[in-house]
Amino acid sequence: MSTMSDIIGKAIGEGRKHLLEHEAKALCAEYEIPVTKVELAKNEPEAAKLAKQIGFPVVLKIVSPDIIHKSDVGGVITNIKTEKAVQLAYARIIANIERNMPNASIVGILIQEMAPQSTEVIIGTIKDPQFGPTLMFGLGGIFVEILKDVTFRIAPITKDEAHEMITEVKAYPILKGYRNMPRADTEALVKILLNTSRLVTEHQEIKEIDLNPIMVYEKGAKVVDARIILE
Description:
Blueprint: H1 4-13, H2 21-30, E1 38-41, H3 44-54, E2 58-63, E3 76-80, H4 83-100, E4 108-113, E5 119-128, E6 132-139, H5 142-145, E7 150-154, H6 159-168, H7 172-175, H8 186-202, E8 206-216, E9 221-223, E10 226-230
Antiparallel strand pairs: 1-4, 2-3, 2-4, 5-6, 5-8, 6-7, 8-9, 8-10
Helix pairs in contact: 3-4, 6-8
């Protein structure tokens, strides 16, 4: 994958507002945001080979500029443990897409390392018409969906503000290791917040970023899914 401006330029040139997932993750990686390993496969044998390189288990996801919600159309298969299973999953996803979205153009299938389950958090950005790029932090799942338990800051943010964003959410005790849950590496989250802040500050052509979910561990964190929308 080439540099940031090439990735954004390519999307704009193709008339796309959404970056494809491997493009979004390549941008994140350039800003030292820890993403899952991903490779783009164009056929079944290539998918099997790339999965072996990445290491099992893997996740397969459809890559198409026409498909935003991949799971809804049978475009995601998780926890695949052998090369043979990768080839079967590849064929199954293509068949699902041809059945559910026959007109979608297919770029290929993303082979992604499967991040172990852990506490999920969300980091995102939106562009406020008045204040410009604004960062959001929250815990994943019901906390953000139902309880709307999130915090916001205008970018660029400082390290202190990143810490505040994390400790301000009502669900913060979960990150500290509530009951039998492991204590989360909040420093890793601070770093992701700061790097995301830098990314949107330096690239005003980005309208929205959605890093969701981010698995946070006792040591480190991994962005499992990344969406970037351009102006």
